Amino acid sequence: MKKTVEKKRNHQKSQSFSTSPSQELKKVTWPNRNTLVKSTVLILIMVVVLTIYVAGLDYFFAEMLFFLRNLT
């Protein structure tokens, strides 16, 4: 008796697992085109700015390292 109850529960879990994503996707509020474009542009600008910032830090520390090596 106990085994059949466990099998039934496992079967229900696997069924709900496979149908759950489609049900969850129906609940999602998708952005409209204007919001999507604005967000994409903002992300691309932030990527460029942060890339320049990290490259600048890399260049600065590389120059400092070369400077300190040449002191000796």
Structural commentary:
The protein has helices at residues 2-27, 33-70. It has two helices and no strands. The mean pLDDT is 84. 0% of the residues are buried. It has one domain (2-70). It is mostly helical.
How many strands, what sense, and barrel or not for the largest sheet?
A: none
| Percentage of β-strand residues | under 5%
Q: What's the overall geometry?
A: elongated
Alpha plus pi helix count? 2
User: SS-based structural class?
Assistant: mainly alpha
What is the radius of gyration computed over CA atoms, rounded to a whole number of angstroms?
27 Å
Give the N-to-C terminal Cα separation.
Answer: 82 Å
- DSSP helix fraction: over 70%
> What is the N-to-C succession of helices and strands?
HH
Average residue pLDDT: 84
Q: How many strand elements?
A: 0
User: Multimeric state of these chains?
Assistant: single chain
Total number of domains: 1
Segments where pLDDT lies below 50 for 5+ residues?
none
